[in-house]
Amino acid sequence: MGEINKVVVHYLNGQILKGTTQDFFPNRPLFHMQPLDGGAAHEVRIKDLKAVFFVRDYEGNRARRDLRGFVAAPAETSQGKKIAVQFKDGELLCGYSLSYSPERLGFFMFPADPGSNNLRVFVVRTAARDIKAGPAADALAQQIIDRSEAA
Q: Is the pLDDT of residue 75 over 90?
């Protein structure tokens, strides 16, 4: 068995489940999740998901305000190149990825905000409205932030 990972699973239909997994692999179409309530483990199909958030803890810090965008972050780090993802539900995630490819089902990204409760996020590509890497990631993030501040 693999390492036990704390995950928060976001489905395309808006449902959110919290639990643990030991068999998540980015190239497999499903994995098993043990819910927090101690119920029976169940299959989670990647095609039904928006993203899988690998978290430090399940509660996070509700008083903390997450940083949006890249906030003068470097173009590339040991975690990869800048990437911005706008999901179909409007959520914006900014971070870094070593594995983004438009041909793959999904990819891992690491948050640009080092204080984030997320350790890494597996983004399901089909759940995204827009994905930009490199300098285009900065532009997409700024465009979305400007729009939300104007509203």
A: no
